[in-house]
Amino acid sequence: MSKFFYYFKRIMAILAVIVVAFLLQTSVFNHLELASVVPNLLVLLTAFAGFMNGRMEGMFVGFTAGFIADLYFSEWFGMFALIYLVIGFLNGSFRTAFFGDDIKLPLLYVAVSDLVYGIIIYLCLYMPREQYEFVYYFFNVMMPEAVYTLLITLIFYLPLIRLNQWIHKTEPRSTRSFG
Fold it and tell me: How many separate domains does the chain show?
């Protein structure tokens, strides 16, 4: 089969996972709020795509997830797309350090990605409004969200690894990444 078919299948699988994650984040997890925060599944997916498959796929997943978030949440259109794109790029830089059987490093990547996301959101949305309570925001929003996202990462880690393996198993070696 042609490379186009494999890329198309991969893109459709990625889009389906992003849409499901977005729907879970905005519906189911809104009702499972802990400490006034919900886990950030889009950061989780973006980080996973980056460190499992490299910069290009991390940036693609990040931009797509951010674009959907922009459509739903954003005051400044494109802000979330750029934030998630950067997170995907940064996580893609660590692709060579990723081993599927070790969960410690992916947990660290997801936690740092969620904290970077929180810091950028603070800088873009709260500082321009002259809300300078960074320590309060850090301990009452960013840290609880990062911890909750880490707990959810433990649940979604194995299914996402299996999905990635299934996609890789069905495509030829020459089409295994976007880059």
Answer: 1
